[in-house]
Amino acid sequence: MTMPFVVLPGEGRLLDLGNFEAVVLADEPGTSGAFTVLRTQGEPPGFGPPLHVHRDAAEAFYVLEGVYRMHLEDRQVHCGPGSFVYVPPNVVHTFVVVSDEPGKKLNLFSPAAMVGFFEELAEAEANGLATPQLLDEISERNHMGIVGPVPDLYL
Description:
CATH topology: Jelly Rolls
Shape: globular
Largest sheet: 6 strands, antiparallel
CATH class: Mainly Beta
Number of domains: 1
Number of strands: 11
């Protein structure tokens, strides 16, 4: 049975991903697989992941700081603090921080997904092993497909 829980400011599990951080606020065990919530922070200007698709989950973003240019299939939208973005499963998307200050956002995956991706990528970054090829392998293990080139600031 899933139990209620509270994550207070400064709590959560921090994953250092080199050019940014992810804080795990809720994951599969804590939500019985219903959803995952991460806070991604310290995403520098110009930062963004490669164009990609999640095969097993929808993803939603809530922008807390900075401005992101969201790429959703064939359109682009500038999203500042307070913006909410929903991306259904199997929709090609990415984002780029376009503000002069770093970006911070909440990421929600439903059903629960992607914590394994960020854990594996954090380990690769910590060991100096992160490469585009390894990113492809980590992505595939976590039901995500990379469909565009890996931007320089991502790894």
